[in-house]
Amino acid sequence: MNSSAPVRPVVIGGFGAAGASLALALVRGGVEPGAITVFDANPDSDAAPDKPDARILALNAGSRRYLEALGAWERLADQAYPMRSIAISDTGLEETIRPRLLDMVPERMEPEEEGGPLAHLVALGRLNHVLRGLCREAGIEVLKGRYGGSVASTSAIDVRIGDETRRARLLIGADGARSAIRTMAGIPVHGWPYGQTAIVATIRHSLPHHGEGAQHFLPSGPFALLPLDEYRSSIVWSEKAEQAAGILAAGPAERKRAIEARAAGWRGEIVDVEAVSAHPLQLALARRFVAERIALVADAAHVVHPLAGQGLNLGFEDCAMLAELVVERLRAGLDPGAPDLLETYQARRRPAAVAMGYAMEGMNRLFSNDSGPLRVLRDAGVGFVNRMPGLKQRLMKAASGQTGLSPRLFRGEAL
After folding, report:
1. Which pTM value belongs to this model?
2. What backbone phi and psi angles, to 5 degrees, belong to 399?
3. Which of 411, 349, 318 is nearest to 18 (CA)?
4. Tens digit of each residue's pLDDT (9 = 90 or more) over 269-312
5. Domain ranges of the chain
6. Architecture of the structural domain at 7-411
7. DSSP 3-state assignment of 366?
8. Which residues pair with 173 in a beta bridge?
9. SS (H, E, C) 91-160
């Protein structure tokens, strides 16, 4: 390695939503754009954001504030659909009537208040396109290349990117669930496959949704309807892997009938089904979020069940917290890759990811079965929550990224 090469504060592996937003957060905190390198094997993917895209993200209020601070929200707002409430049911698939067990409705409806929408639904392709465009406009260096390993020392880390090398104080792994940075750092992963596949699609329907989402807990897995424009919804449908394979192999008419059976008339007639894709589900938690001069964020650090839509919200919170710590360190003229900073980051973010991962695991196991006694117990518990408005509001506030432990950018504060 060339020890005379200039040393950058940060090199980020991964140019998806997490890596791109983290680079922008650092710039907003005063880091020179030219001092940051982001690299990715496919930095120009998702370059056509207007094509049909069923990969819809539910961004909570904290993530919205984060994107506002980065200058991204103003470019997303015209295609960000508010989910103002969500209804929850728990029935068997053959039951045509799906009674509401729980309605989650914020106290106030103004977006800037605590009682604003529960989430905004945004297409992943558009989000990536906006964040990547802002990075390039800011002058952040973006390299195309695969991660080839790194060598850390007491003062820097040399990062191989294809045929090039960049020297930095800190390498950030934002390179997804199959993170090469995590693997080459020797960080093990704890978790297991769920034996479920998430089928995602966009549907057109005959009845308006009025900003309401729905979550049907069915024996084979949860089925969610998430509002887009008034007569379109995104579906996130968790199905046993064997059944999902059959549904995906079937023709469009049969898939439409399967969706209608699960939607149970809550959106009227299903008029059309667009942009179907499928994703195997797993729980994966990195045993450590840090190594020598390395920090992991988002899917490189944790993958949780999508039933509460918290995956990218957790990832954005990682990015906001790490950016906050790095900016504070750089302003003081100190090393952003020092062991104490990395341990602070891990202590603030890993417990939250573990708690969310196991909470989603518990909910999935509790509801994804056809046990009569378990249904009685879980329905009684959900009914108790429904009768306690204060408890419901606290749960919604926590899910929105509005806690005292949230990073500044999630609370709407500047770095």
Report:
1. 0.89
2. -70, -20
3. 318
4. 999 998 898 999 999 999 999 999 999 999 999 999 887 678 89
5. 7-411
6. 3-Layer(bba) Sandwich (3.50)
7. helix
8. 13, 296
9. CCCCCCCCCCCEEECCCCCCCCCCCCCCEEEEEHHHHHHHHHHHHHHHCCEEEECCEEEEEECCCCEEEE
